[in-house]
Amino acid sequence: MSTADSRGHLAGLLSLVIPAHNEADNLPRVLPAARQVLAALADEFEIVLVDDGSTDQTVAVARREMGDAGARLRVVSHAHKLGYGITVADGLRAAHGQWVAFMDGDGQFDPMDLARLAEQGTAADLIAGWRQRRADPWHRSVVSHTFNILVRLLYGISYRDVDCGFKLMRRQVLDAAAPLLARSALLNTELYFKAQRSGLRVTQVGLTHHPRLAGVRSGGRLRPILRAVGELVRLRLELARSWSPKEAPPS
After folding, report:
1. Could you write out the DSSP letters of every residue in the chain?
2. Which of 18, 110, 133, 151 has the fewest CB within 10 Å, making it most exposed?
3. pLDDT by residue (tens digit) across 155-178?
4. Is 125 inside any structural domain?
5. pTM higher than 0.70 for the full model?
């Protein structure tokens, strides 16, 4: 049962999904902090690293950084790069936890902030971060702002920073959202939309967003942006045709 107490302790297994493409230089900062916060938050935890066709030592570094907790790491590997949405969705499907979180592996979020999301576990089913100030080039903020306006218009959901890649949810959210249809960052929109339409409780927590210190930033290029806008429309039509809310089980 995915219960939580007022101190932010999460009962049962907590899964953290980390999508990663060539993040060997960032994982030595991300994984030790993730191990520390997960051990403090839950009775049991696992980390599901989804290696999206990395050409560096991402997986080897991850195994090294897990140290004596290596049995808690599971790796899902893509033979070649498939993109953010597919990578996160594969991790969510592979996760075994009663609670499931995901965060980017690039070090722009502090894993310790997972504790701040967990504090809302008694009051919400989907707890999502939003970036109080993006540590990205200005044009990425403009794109994100435009994207969020389109999401509000097409999907009828009014949340801040919908595409922020740091979320914690009960297993009930994934059950209600299945099957996940989005193949891009619209996965975040799909989770919000399906949770809200299923009558599940959604809340947000403001987070600090940190500059990327290593590796190459993905996203923000014109072609993927135009593709995402097109998918925004296609996904909404597909949801209208093929998805309806299930009766949500008790939290």
Report:
1. ---B-TT--EEEEEEEEEEESS-TTTHHHHHHHHHHHHHHHEEEEEEEEEEES-SSSHHHHHHHHHGGGGGGEEEEEESS---HHHHHHHHHHH---SEEEEE-SSSSS-GGGHHHHHTTTTT-SEEEEEESS--S-HHHHHHHHHHHHHHHHHH----SSTT-SEEEEEHHHHHHHPSP---STHHHHHHHHHHHHTT--EEEEEE------SS------HHHHHHHHHHHHHHHHHHHHH--PPPPPP-
2. 133
3. 999 999 998 999 999 999 999 999
4. yes
5. yes
